[in-house]
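Case study 2.
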Amino acid sequence: MAAPNRWGRAPGAVGSRGHDDVVRGVGVKSSDSATIYTMQSTIKVFYERPGQSAAEAWARVPQEPLPQERPLLKDRIRHRLKAQNAVLVAHYYVHPDIQDLAEETGGCVSDSLEMARFGRDHPAKTLVVAGVRFMGETAKILSPEKRVLMPDADANCSLDLGCPPEEFSAFCDAHPDRTVVVYANTSAAVKARADWMVTSSIGLKIVAHLHAQGKKILWAPDRHLGHYIQQQTGADMLLWQGSCLVHDEFKAFELEQLKKEYPLAKVLVHPESPDSVVKLADVVGSTTQLIAAAQSLQADEFIVATDNGILHKMKLLAPGKRFIEAPTAGESATCKSCAHCPWMAMNGLGNLAQALETGGNEICVDPEIGRRAKVSIDRMLDFAKHVNLNVVPSGDLDKDQHLFKNIGPA
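Prediction:
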């Protein structure tokens, strides 16, 4: 029997329920006044937190609706979005049904910051954010006058959980000579303590800019991404020791074996992955940049080292190409590629419909914390206006490599 992974069970057993799981039913009214129930399994999740060997959290995973339930739920959601002047914004990692529904109804599917930007600029009075909690908070920070709902407000992130505001603030206080730069995958309170928030390729550009000014950096929370940026820029960076529980699981040895099996495949890697995995990549990039590479590069096969939710968009935009999930486990595991965030999996059609129907799971941010957090975000956005962030791949990997090698995650 394989050892349990960070989801609290043996790899590949996500569909089963162990002794620690709790099953509960959630009622969602359909358009014909019937009630659809989707059962939810609650699982333990283990993540890294500085000073602890393993911290414990939980995630509840809604069961897939039955085939006859899906159209009812989608119609209900469409109706509610229109009736409430609401727009759905979804991350690349959530269920394909939600991604498709967002685009069908005039919303967007993108990375976390573009989700917030889209919501800020859209005339809708209500934003429905399908993703994890920090994404809902960022949307609220940029659009404080709008109502922000989520399918499940308890959908967390290991990077966010692994960087508690009080401990992080004390860490910053202990190093007052350093400029505080935090990644988007943090709480509103952590962003409020930061000088800069960064995402995508702007993270590298901002750190390089600060380094050129002689600034020393305090970086949080992902140590792999911090190490990657440190290598690329040469900056003096003190790293918070957090990690993404999905990307941290990718294995270099197994990836090397997979490359031998698919020698013509290009390897696409998100830089929240361990350095040993990043070194095997043809392209290192954010979610958006990996999708762009899949579209533009002259290859028929790609090995993808990020959350497997991204494969839906890759397949839509690059039909005819083959996408292979990078391995997350060794030979003894029951699942070779289990790269899907358990909190992203908390977004389902059932709880999305329920949030719109009841107004539940509304995201609120303390106004003062939101005001201070917006300073760190706006500083990044103002900087972005003065640098060229356009990336137009030609399709030639050798020619375009410089476009992709210095990309941070979104």
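The chain has 16 helices and 15 strands.
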